[in-house]
Amino acid sequence: MPPTLASLVQHSALKLTVRAGEDRLDTPVRWAHVSELADPVPYMEGGELLLITAMTLDAEDPQTMRRYVRRLAGAGVVGLGFAVGVSYESVPDALLEAARAEDFPLLEVPRRTPFLAISKAVSAAIAADQYRAVTAGFEAQRELTRAALAGPGELLARLAAHVDGWAALYDTAGAVVAVRPEWAGRRAARLTADVARLRDRAAPASAVAGGSDDRVELQSLGTGRRVRGALAVGTGAPLGTAERYAVHSAVALLTLTTERTRALQLAEQRLGAAVLRMLLSGQQDHARAVAGDLYGGLLDAPFRLVIAERAGEAADLGALTEAMESAAARAGEAVLVVPEGDRLVVLAADGGDAVAACVSFTPEEGAELVAGLSAPAGPIAAASAYKQAEQALSVARRRGRPLVEHEELVAGSLVPLLAEDAVRAFADGMLRALYEHDATGRGDLVASLRAWLSRHGQWDAAAADLGVHRHTLRYRMRRVEEILGRSLDDPDVRMELWLALKATASRPE
Fold first, then answer.
1. Which of 29, 150, 190, 344 has an alpha carbon 20 to 30 Å from 38's alpha carbon atom?
2. 35-to-86, 214, 399 alpha-carbon distances in Å
3. 358 pLDDT exceeds 70?
4. Taking Cα atoms as reference points, which of 49, 71, 68, 48 lies closest to residue 58?
5. What pLDDT does residue 211 have?
6. pTM (2 decimals)?
7. What percent of the chain has pLDDT over 70?
8. Mapped to the 3 state alphabet, what secondary structure does 282-317 carry?
9. Residue 237, Cβ neighbours under 10 Å: how many?
């Protein structure tokens, strides 16, 4: 504990007497300062015990003393030591009344006690407190280092005990990884927005979040500009020196753990790339052998393949990687991540949290990504799943959508696919001559062709739909063949014309 006014009063060699402010003697003293200035406030920082003899003060003037004491209290001075037997034989009544009116601690210093002795006592107590804090900090560091070997949870438990509060670890996405004691889980979860703001700043960064329950300090984890996580420490009061040593030690240990984890992730990515190449080349048994326990479970159940790529200059595949890896870690899932330059390939469990994180991922403004997601597959069909993801990615790129699932391409109708610009251009070119003919008012060849094709070439049914004689319809179909220079007896021609009609019908007006 730092020195307080009470500890100085109890110091047997100083012989100090309390004359006012008895209820505020537990206030810590940061320093003891001597000043005979009529207004020493501009030279104060707060927390000082001011020592005076009143050589330049009219200590018997009530108005002067009221202003003097009020100024000292407003500046954060914790107390006033008045030496008797120098300028005044006793504490003047005006000063005494002013101090009592402000409930401001006033200590009487006997003549035989030099101010230097008080300064030395304060300095010695501060030094002793700092030594105790450093010693406690080193002990906390040793204890936290041992705890770190057992994992982040044990480290957080030891840290929480040291600060008499709680501690929580967050991942790069701002989700709670671990919290100790467990009763603080709800408090830690409420800080997600604060952690997100801290993540936007270059590491190392810190912030204070005040709540109704406690005071929380947030510290970022990481050695580079990218934040790798965050530590929250909740206490009932501001941290002391010893507690701050413990927090700094925990930050250092968690940062080392995070960076080590990052290095392992890079090694896993290289291993994952090899496993993926084996799967795509049909070597499923070799892939399982190389993956071992690291990805073994993932290869024994249905999985999905995701292929993502940048769609803008500011796009960052790392953010998608972190989102999927964090989701997988929280759910206890295995995930295989393989960066390929400007692309990212991820193999994740079908129906798992990693896939869900990919589907719901929202990049930052201006950082656009496009991704394709395969249908569920097993190791034998890995190559097919890769092609499916590439096909879905191609559609996502053309349509300007952030993600397309391959199942969208094979489910439902083929008609939505005709909305592509290239298909519409083909359709417009194929049918332009018919539209130009109809525009002259010399017939309705487009509508007749649509009715005839929809009735599979049945003349009577198509003519009835149009309200014309079948001979009229036969004449119109011969005109279609003449204008297009193609035979309607060819099934490929009929198919192309039908798709062209569907494509032009789906275009916006």
1. 29
2. 15, 39, 77
3. yes
4. 68
5. 62
6. 0.44
7. 89
8. CCHHHHHHHHHHHHHHHHCCCEEEEEEEECCCCCCH
9. 11
Q: How far is the C-alpha of 386 from the C-alpha of 381, rounded, in Å?
A: 9
For residue 170, what are its two tokens? Answer: 């967050």
Q: What is the mean pLDDT of the chain?
A: 84
User: Are 124 and 31 spatial neighbours (Cβ–Cβ below 8 Å)?
Assistant: no
The pairing of strands 335-340 and 343-349 is antiparallel
The most confident of the ranges 86-100, 372-386, 432-446 is 86-100
Residue type, 50: L
Amino acid present at 324? M
Q: What share of the chain is helix, strand, coil (3-state, %, to 5)?
A: 55, 15, 30
Cα within 13 Å of Cα(430), Cβ side: 20
CA separation (Å) from 178 to 155, 167, 259, 328?
Answer: 10, 9, 18, 15
For residues 417 and 406, give the distance between their C-alpha atoms in angstroms, rounded to a whole number. Answer: 13
Per-residue pLDDT reduced to its tens digit, 139-181? 777 888 887 777 788 889 988 988 889 999 988 777 788 889 9
Q: How far separated are the first and last CA of the chain, in Å rounded?
A: 80
Q: Is residue 69 within 8 Å of 102, Cβ to Cβ?
A: yes
Find tokens 């998608």 and name the residue: 320
The answer to whether the CB of 319 falls within 8 A of the CB of 364 is: yes
DSSP bridge pairs for 176: 170
**Which residues, listed in sequence order, are joined to residue 305 by a DSSP beta bridge?**
347
